[in-house]
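Researcher: Structure prediction, please.
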Amino acid sequence: MQSAGASAQFASQKAKYPDDIVQGEISVVLVVSPESYLSSKKPHRILRDHVRIFAEEQGGIVLFCATFSSFIKPTSFDLYFKNEWKLPWRFGTYYRTSLVVNPNFRIVRDEDNGPLRFNPSTAALEPQYSQKATHIKHAAQNSLLYVTTTESMSESNAFHSGSVDDSSQSPVVFQAYGKGYVGYLGDVNGEVGTVTAILVLCGLKGSTEPPKCAARSPTLSVGGFYCSGCGKQETEVENGDGDESYKRCGKCKLSKNTLERGP
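Model: Predicted structure follows.
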């Protein structure tokens, strides 16, 4: 198991040898901090591509957890998962409430990506617990591992009290991604229930074993910029706008300028 959040310095040292960023036979990559991980510098872009491709091509598990949700900006979150992972996940609401295991949770995979090799057991999870977390919205309903109920109330002293039953958001999400899996845990306090969920999703608790993947050089290109307009990866793009990790490609930049100038 390797932590991508703590690998920025390692990635910088290995920038000239991107094939060596992830080595050996591993099952899970934990991304625990966004601060250096989301840097626009090329070594960090290479690392991010390797992490994503580890799930997409090599069948591994990638979990965004620990302090990741505490230190990432909403706009950076949305751009990262939209442009690089091509996922509909968006930064959601932040509050404390009690949640229960989603009875409709299930992993769905496209037939083109082969059979499921890992199916975490919900029986090993805490059936219900309270957590202060950043939720994400627009994830598939069957991928929400924990959900609120009609009895869920805001338990945060700093926020208004009242019902927070919202089936469109969750602080714990896990789904198939390409040949592998990707998950998110937005708990900011490291509750026991969240630690248990991480162990279950890593295959360290419960009845299922995680896939073991021989980390290798990906067949896709790595280290390019992702266009914030069309999401296409470009090797180098001049004159970025917005987040420096997500500049506009020449085609989208031209289209934007044309729209701004008008006919």
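Model: The radius of gyration is 19 Å.
Researcher: Thanks, that helps.
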